[in-house]
Amino acid sequence: MLEVKNLTVHYDGAMALNDVSIRVEKGEFVAVVGPNGAGKTTLLKAVSGTLRELQRVRREKARLTGEITFEDKRIDNLKPWAIVKMGIIHCPERRRLFPEMTVYENLMMGSYLRKDKEEIKKDLERVYQIFPILRERKNQMAQTLSGGEGQMLAIARALMAKPKLLMIDEPSLGLAPLAKQKVFDSIKEIWDSGVTILLVEQDVSMALTLATRGYVLTHGRIAAKGTPQELLKNEDLREMYIGV
User: Fold this and answer.
1) Bridge partners for 222 per DSSP
2) Whole-model pTM above 0.85?
3) What count of Cα atoms within 13 Å lies in the side-chain half-sphere of residue 169?
């Protein structure tokens, strides 16, 4: 479904990603794990097109080389909205909600590019079933939600875009253990429903418990790849990069 080949990203001369290649098959749950600053968020931004758009807006000096394809179509030169329309939805780090909109309005923003009103209603009901608290909070401003509720809203908003591939960046960031568990239970439910998932996460144990395959990213390079069992059996890898 998704293939990233030899992706290299430089920011103002500093290398953020160095010759990174990953693939995600339809129906998989793939986790990219590694320490803070390894380049995980940069990878997702490159796939979703937001990295190039931010460079244009901020006029940052950055350079991307490599190739990104989705369903056998080249996407590394497309605008973010065009990538969204193809079915790649990026749930960003730190939620990025619209704070002065209600929960319901945030959810509707997720369906902004869609025209199928009846299907939107069905997907809204599905979101409320996965995240019952959002039905209770639907008329509240997003800025009044707890951290866990805000993360649920961010994922639910992404679901309203009807993703083929859902990319989730650091969903456990800043959450208490109970809230973290609820969020990951919901992510598993979404995957079980048939949505392909690419997860970036620092909580390696949690991520590899759910994933079908994983990549370890460190210093902008892929240090290892394989099944969760293979990664966790490697003692050197666990000590150096995974930390469990």
Assistant:
1) 217
2) yes
3) 19
